[in-house]
Amino acid sequence: MLAAKQELIVRELEEGTGAVIAVAIDNGGLRSGMKIWFDDLDQQHGPVAEIRPHGLKAHRVNLAFGNFSGAVIRQIRQASAEDRQLAMALVASIDQAVGLSIEAQALDDWTVNDGSFRMTATKRHNVRPDSDEAVSETCREVIVPMMAAMAELIGYDVVEEDAICDESAFEGAIKPSLVNRRERNPRNRLLCIRLHGETCAACGLEPRRRYGDNAGGIIEVHHLEPLASIANPRPYDPATDLLPLCPSCHRAAHTRRPVPWEVEDIRRMLEEHGG
User: Fold this and answer.
1) From residue 228, how far is each of 89, 117, 146, 202 by CA, in Å?
2) How far apart are CA 54 and CA 52, in angstroms?
3) Quick one: 150 and 190 in the same domain?
4) CA 194, CA 265: separation in Å to the nearest integer?
5) Residue 159 has pLDDT above 50, yes or no
6) pLDDT band at 175 (very low <50, low <70, confident <90, very high)
7) Of 154, 186, 208, which residue is a domain's last?
8) CB 194, CB 181: distance < 8 Å
9) Which domain of life, per UniProt (predicted)?
10) What is the pLDDT, as a whole number, of residue 170?
11) Are residues 128 and 181 in the same domain?
């Protein structure tokens, strides 16, 4: 039963979205399901995802807005071009086999215009839908990108200013610190891994192979846009502007300030010093 998976669902979604998540059992249908929303917005005032068993080995996932979501929807309409692009890329990263659809809109060009917005997907498994494996997979592969996209549009900030004090000496102004937030944003990490995998683009380290699952998820996201150009911000393309780096290579890239070393430079350093 999904009722026993609340802790698992919350953990998966908070790690993937960078937002605090609330859940509740929903017994309104033929089979009980789980409703999921952002903790600072109740079920009536923001996006709500719903997961239910579907058939013998599938989950049906729906995402819609509560009846009193007008303020949040107006906020979403004001999202920047960059936030919209990242949100669309997150949704586009969902496997086509899931059968994702957005009511009355195309998957490659959608907007949240009003409370009628609705996103639906069906995730099929090789095991029973009430197993930990199936629930985790549906969360990671479907609900996390859906909710992460909404978090991006709403504008959840996932890093406090004082959390980047170790780099404040060269970050300086407020605008350059945005790069740190992008790099540490779990939504960027999610998308970067979906696009490029978990192999360090500089040294080739695959943390999960070396350390196992418990400590293997340490790959970091590197934003390729130089700090020096942040004064003229532009919407970035997640496919070309993000790369995964292991912690060592990521730190090495930022030893040159204010403009980090290129990934090619890190590769050359490793070759020259037998890394």
Assistant:
1) 26, 39, 33, 22
2) 6
3) no
4) 24
5) no
6) very low
7) 154
8) no
9) Bacteria
10) 37
11) no
